[in-house]
Every structure is written in structure tokens, then in C-alpha cells.
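Support reply, case 0932

Customer input (verbatim):
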Amino acid sequence: MGFDGARLRALRHRANLSQRELGELIGADITVIANYENGRAAPRVDRLGRLALALGAAPADLLPEDVSDETLERLRVRAGLLQATVAERARMTRSKYAAIERGQIATISPADARALADTFEVDLEQVLSAQAVSRAAFLDRMPR
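Our regenerated output:
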């Protein structure tokens, strides 16, 4: 997914919160916040959303800035959604959505693409482009 602990720290400082205070706001221990900020751990998407809300920011504000390789996973994370939630909203099985997100499926149907665009609240072209990037990344990981 990519997570930027330095951005978390900067947003926390901007919000004038200590690690302990932020942890209390999201129901986490101070060490969890410290681990996020130091890059030793990354939050799940649902906790990423809680962090963003507590800091008055968007989930995307906690991600690295480079968006040249926008994947379906990145669109999902930006939307603050878990795979299961995306699958449910797009009316597909979680395993089908996971395979699409990983790039295992070469092309997606127009209906699935539209459902994902609606779920992520982005335009259809963004979904199709992200799916192509996800597919290319999957193929790059395949043994030759």
C-alpha cells in the first residue's frame, strides 16, 4: 500500500497532538503510533482512515506523494476501504476483487469497472488505468 510515517508525524504536529493523544483518539497505544511514524509498522486501511479523521486530513495525505503508478490498491486505500468492503459495494466476491487488484485478471468487464469507479468515487478512466498498472506490476513479478 505504501504509508508515509513522516507525513503522519508532520500532520500530528500540525494538529498539535502528542503520540499518546493521537493513540487515544484512534484507540491505539503510544507505541503503535511511534512504530507508524518510525516506519516499523503500517496501519491497516481502516485504521488509516481513523488516523486521517483524527488529524483532520484525508487518508491519501498519509501516503507517499508519488502517484505516477496509480494501482487499484492505491485507489482503494485512498478511498479508505478494505478489500472486503470494496467487493461488497461492487457486488463481487472478495476473492474476485483481490485477484483484480493484484492484476491476476487481464481485463475487467465494463460493469465491474463501473462498479469500482462508483465505489472509489473516481472516473472510469482512472479505474481502467489503475487496473492496467496493477496488471503490468503483476506480470513484472512473474518468473521469466
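We compared this against your earlier run and they match. Two observations from our side: Residues 124-141 form the longest helix (18 residues). The chain has two domains: 5-62, 72-141. Please reopen the case if you see a mismatch on your end.
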